[in-house]
Specification:
Mean pLDDT: 80
Largest sheet: 4 strands, mixed
Number of domains: 1
Distance between the termini: 35 Å
Number of strands: 6
Strand order of the largest sheet: 1-6-4-5
Low-confidence stretches: 13-24, 186-191
Radius of gyration: 20 Å
Shape: elongated
Helix content: 40-55%
Strand content: 15-25%
Length: about 190
């Protein structure tokens, strides 16, 4: 794990010298919180997709009802409240892989992942200006933890109901973390 952090730091230093850095600009905290919400859901969805669809878990009580039957059922691991809660506890650690940046083409704030899921460098470094901030992006993890803690039940409910477009429903509709009029939806620079 320390090797990963050392490699990440080395790569960051290399690219920091090779491109312009924007000094710790003060951006709208609501905008940043909205971006963190969306990236957190993207990370959670990636983890859920890794779950074997055939994996199931028994839920419910093991007490007999008045008729002598057990009140439990089998659900997909991806819908298990306990499993979803455990994944939510770890998803915010993935915010360590993100930095604040501005797309060079339009100056839009984004959360930029340093490493791709396969461990290679993100190929879009030339398309962004990294934002050098005083807290070394610890606020990203802080915002993620706050959102997950505050709205965990809503998020679990959405996944258990197999809601469509969980990111939009969770971040915009159900929680209001992102204002409905927000035009800073996570977007990739148009090339």
């Amino acid at each position: 794990m320390q090797c990963l952090y050392l490699a990440l730091f080395s790569v960051f230093v290399y690219y920091a010298q090779a491109q312009s850095l924007v000094q710790d600009a003060k951006y709208n905290n609501k905008e940043l919180r909205c971006l963190v919400c969306q990236k957190s859901i993207e990370e959670l969805e990636a983890e859920i997709k890794k779950i074997d669809p055939e994996s199931t878990v028994d839920v419910g009580g093991y007490r007999l009802d008045a008729e002598g039957n057990y009140n439990h059922k089998t659900v997909s691991m991806a819908k298990s409240e306990i499993h979803l809660s455990e994944m939510m506890e770890t998803v915010c650690k993935k915010m360590d892989n993100y930095v604040r940046a501005l797309w060079k083409s339009n100056g839009t704030l984004t959360l930029f992942t340093m490493l791709s899921p396969d461990g290679t460098m993100n190929g879009d470094f030339d398309s962004v200006d990294l934002i050098q901030d005083m807290d070394l992006n610890e606020s990203l993890k802080y915002y993620c933890e706050g959102i997950v803690e505050e709205y965990e039940e809503i998020l679990i409910k959405l996944y258990q109901q197999e809601a469509e477009d969980v990111k939009t429903r969770f971040c915009f509709t159900e929680t209001g973390v992102c204002p409905a009029s927000a035009d800073y939806v996570t977007r990739r620079e148009e090339l």
